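Researcher: Sequence recovery benchmark, item below. Answer with residues only.
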């Protein structure tokens, strides 16, 4: 019987993350110095010149070219031979850097199957060195258009040149920050660690709320989610994109978690009230459509902002 987990020295597979996992066993410290040099160079260059890579890696030009050829053959970097010869990291290369760091930090021991694919992230089943089942979320902001990403990601600011890998790294840092602010007071995954564009959390059993047709007590779930919105608000956090698509429910236990926090804003943000109202409306509208549960929006909104007001049901 095949082990469902693939240790970090596994053979190469079509999956990009598992390609990175396979590449790890073929790399040495100088290879990682070159990969890190390209990563650092991409903060300034769209295509990092070979001479700059050598300087940042602390290697002579001949050694650098040997390493670059190796990394290129492994599919970790992309080579440009336009006005000058230069390189950038590919997705596999950036995954490799993150996984190597997480492995060395004794956070991740093994990678398993892909649990989910979204517009901006891939989530994988994994194991910690102690054998605990965990989840790895790889942020992939390069899938969305650059303009849309800049429009909606407040942490990018006004930088004129920002690479896809840096966008993804900022998204992971932002999400990890939110989880640490909210856990354990709000139903969110347990934050375990992060590196670059990867966030490591507790394993998340269950299915997205939008897939569920029946619940034993949908009203109790709705009110618990509202309590989470309120608790997060009191902490100073607004999800910003809350809906039935990022609430994961374990049907057997009725436990749930709210996921996907990289777009969160603080309660001091200029759009805070608008985003809070949208989060509340999204949740109320879903439970009204799916389970015919009607709660008054104004009452819920006031409750979220003040613990003294009771949630009232709408007249049916």
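Model:
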């Amino acid at each position: 019987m095949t082990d469902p987990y693939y240790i970090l020295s596994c053979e190469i597979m079509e999956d990009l993350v598992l390609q990175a996992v396979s590449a790890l066993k073929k790399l040495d410290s100088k290879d990682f110095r070159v990969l890190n040099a390209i990563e650092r160079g991409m903060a300034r260059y769209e295509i990092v010149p070979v001479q700059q890579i050598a300087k940042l890696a602390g290697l002579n030009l001949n050694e650098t070219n040997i390493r670059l050829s190796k990394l290129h053959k492994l599919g970790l970097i992309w080579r440009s031979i336009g006005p000058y010869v230069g390189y950038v990291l590919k997705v596999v290369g950036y995954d490799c850097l993150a996984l190597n760091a997480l492995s060395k930090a004794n956070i991740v021991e093994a990678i398993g199957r892909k649990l989910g694919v979204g517009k901006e992230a891939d989530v994988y089943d994994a194991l910690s060195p102690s054998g605990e089942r965990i989840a790895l979320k790889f942020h992939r902001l390069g899938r969305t258009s650059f303009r849309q990403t800049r429009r909606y990601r407040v942490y990018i600011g006004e930088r004129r040149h920002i690479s896809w890998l840096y966008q993804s790294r900022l998204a992971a840092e932002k999400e990890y920050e939110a989880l640490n602010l909210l856990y354990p007071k709000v139903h969110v995954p347990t934050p375990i660690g992060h590196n670059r564009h990867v966030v490591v959390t507790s394993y998340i059993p269950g299915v997205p709320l939008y897939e569920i047709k029946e619940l034993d007590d949908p009203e109790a779930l709705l009110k618990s989610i509202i309590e989470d919105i309120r608790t997060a608000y009191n902490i100073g956090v607004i999800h910003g994109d809350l809906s039935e698509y990022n609430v994961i429910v374990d049907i057997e236990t009725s436990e749930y978690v709210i996921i996907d926090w990289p777009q969160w804003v603080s309660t001091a943000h200029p759009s805070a009230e608008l985003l809070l109202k949208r989060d509340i409306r999204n949740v109320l509208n879903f439970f009204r459509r799916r389970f015919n549960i009607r709660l008054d929006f104004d009452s819920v909104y006031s409750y979220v902002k003040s613990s003294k007001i009771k949630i009232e049901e709408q007249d049916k």
